Amino acid sequence: MGENAINSKKSVAVMGIVNVTPDSFSDGGRHSDAEAAVAHGLRLLEAGADMLDIGGESTRPGAAPVSEAEELARVIPVIAGLRARCDAPLSIDTMKPAVARAAVAAGAGIWNDVSALRGGPDALEVAAGLACPVVLMHMQGDPRTMQSAPHYRDVVEEVESFLLARAEAALEAGVERGAIWLDPGIGFGKTTEHNLALLAALPRLVAHGYPVLLGASRKRFISALDPAAQTPDARLGGSIAVALAGAAAGVAAVRVHDVRETAQAMLVQAAVASARER
User: Fold this and answer.
1) How confident is the model at residue 59 (pLDDT cuts 50, 70, 90)?
2) More confident residue, 62 or 105
3) Residue 202's pLDDT band (boundaries 50, 70, 90)?
4) 52, exposed or middle or buried, with CB in 10 Å at 0-12, 13-18, 19+?
5) pTM (two decimals)
6) Are 272 and 229 a contacting pair, CB within 8 Å?
7) Is the pLDDT of residue 4 over 60?
8) pLDDT of residue 30
9) What is the extent of the structural domain holding 129?
């Protein structure tokens, strides 16, 4: 697959979302069989994605967990199918160490863990053994309960402290520093005010030197700011605004549903920044 012209000029990587689930908040069921999911992933790469994030367990608010066997059955054929047809980096979005291990064996090269390596007693050990990049995300509670009553004394300080502590735990377990990414977990146990505070404080998180992944695409807090955006696909403008704010703050990558539009925004943002520096 040839390099997309958009890919070569962006300053922030675009991670395209491939949900292999029947109940994801934005596109649940649309790509829930392997063939459809592989085709969707290839379309995202053609649209300008630099990498793909494949998930087989919904983490939307209220979502119930799925078994390890079911998650493996959903994601492994998709990862294997994509790896056979492209050489783009593939990420496995899972809290389960065994799923991460099998996904890497099938061709994934990134572990994106919303539980920050707390999903099993061997999670840290598995991450060190896989020797691949791992994304550590902050989440208050779990998907079933996280939006029931989020509360923080100081959301920025608490999220920052948690992520740095998890990064230290990963380092002590043998994960290389350069392999650790951080994600503030927009929408995962946060109110609109919490999300906005974290977005405003992104430069503070970036300053610690770990690459930061920002995932706010189509999130519900956008509809709190724009009541007309009640459905996920009505939140494109807000999603791009957050991605641009992340780029300005220095994040390394944005995780998005709307790849073409986001990649174009990142391209223009990078061009403007370049012109400013001349």
Assistant:
1) confident
2) 105
3) very high
4) buried
5) 0.91
6) no
7) no
8) 54
9) 12-277
* Residues 245, 190: Cα–Cα separation, whole Å: 18
Average pLDDT of span 252-265: 98
Residue 6 pLDDT more than 50? no
**What is the identity of the amino acid at 205?**
L
| Domains of the chain: total | 1
Residue 194: which CATH number?
3.20.20.20
Cite the active site residues. 219, 255
Residue 236 lies in a domain: yes
